[in-house]
Design brief:
By secondary structure, the protein is of the alpha+beta class. The protein has one helix at residues 15-51; strands at 77-78, 83-84, 92-93, 98-99, 107-108, 165-166, 173-175, 181-183, 195-199, 201-202, 213-218, 221-222, 226-227, 239-244, 250-259, 270-274, 282-284, 287-289.
């Protein structure tokens, strides 16, 4: 028998060519993986910015795509030049020196009676009437009776003229003149994503009162009470009540009242009007002592 020739093997590529082909494939696979991951990252950023546009505030130039928030228009009047030195390039204002102006208690004018003069009616004058003479009658003159004028007596107030006096409220505290006022939120960095009530209580001498209880009722729900002096962002003796993460327009829905530490009411329950406006999402309600 004849021996069969051995089958021929295909020529193998040089080792250097196999190595170069394998490295190129790994590089291409790595680039494709990076491109896929970058695409997922871009999609995630787009979804994040679409659902939370407020993130643009922390991106340089990103806030240009958001509506501008009007600056806060609150004015804080410092009482006395009490600056506390702090280490650093410049001194800072002591927050305990920030006070709000104290206005006088409300007063109601008392009616003062006025004296009015009543003009006198004119007295009718009599005019003689003549009759034609007749053979059997003598001409006579008839006179119309004169009406006696009457004068209406005027009231003369006895004693000194009464002057307007302050009205004493049945409660020890009332709303400060001008309250409530509406401002843009400046208590925190939430901006328009914060809606609430804040303020302080002032004594007769104008000093702030700490430790009084402020209760807010939203519809039929009593919110947790807060104490004056628990929120110093508004100043010494301030309080703060968070209502919602966006402004709400309402009438007589939110009510606020002041109590002492024993739970006795110190003021009437005042109904508030609120607005769905980012420039009025901070409702300032200050109390002043009436007596």
């Amino acid at each position: 028998m004849e021996a069969k020739p051995a089958p021929s093997r295909p020529p193998r590529a040089p080792r250097a060519a196999r190595r170069s082909g394998g490295c190129l494939g790994r590089v291409l696979n790595l680039l494709a993986t990076l491109l896929f991951l970058g695409t997922l990252l871009v999609l995630a950023l787009v979804v994040l910015l679409f659902n939370f546009p407020g993130v643009l505030r922390f991106v340089p130039g990103g806030s240009a795509y958001l509506p501008p928030t009007p600056p806060a228009v609150a004015e804080v009047i410092p009482v006395g030049p009490r600056l506390s030195p702090t280490p650093g390039p410049s001194p800072t204002l002591d927050p305990n020196s920030l006070e709000y102006p104290t206005l006088p208690p409300e007063w109601t004018a008392t009616h003062t009676p006025t004296v009015t003069n009543t003009p006198l009616p004119r007295t009718p004058t009599s005019e003689p009437t003549e009759t034609q003479p007749r053979a059997t009658r003598t001409p006579t003159v008839t006179q119309t009776p004169t009406t006696t004028p009457t004068r209406t007596p005027t009231k003369t107030p006895a004693g000194p003229t009464p002057t307007a006096t302050n009205t004493r409220s049945p409660q020890a505290y009332t709303l400060q003149t001008g309250s409530p006022t509406y401002l843009s939120n400046f208590l925190n960095q939430a901006g328009c994503a914060w809606f609430g009530i804040a303020g302080r209580a002032f004594a007769l001498d104008g000093s702030v009162v700490i430790g009084l209880t402020v209760k807010v009722r939203a519809g039929d729900i009593d919110l947790p009470p807060v104490l004056t002096g628990s929120a110093k962002a508004i100043g010494t003796g301030g309080y703060e009540v968070f209502l919602s993460d966006h402004p709400i327009a309402s009438t007589n829905v939110y009510k606020v009242q002041l109590f002492n530490a024993n739970g006795a009411a110190l003021s009437e329950q005042y109904s508030l009007t609120t607005f769905g406006d980012c420039t009025k999402n901070l409702v300032m309600v200050n109390f002043v002592q009436n007596h």
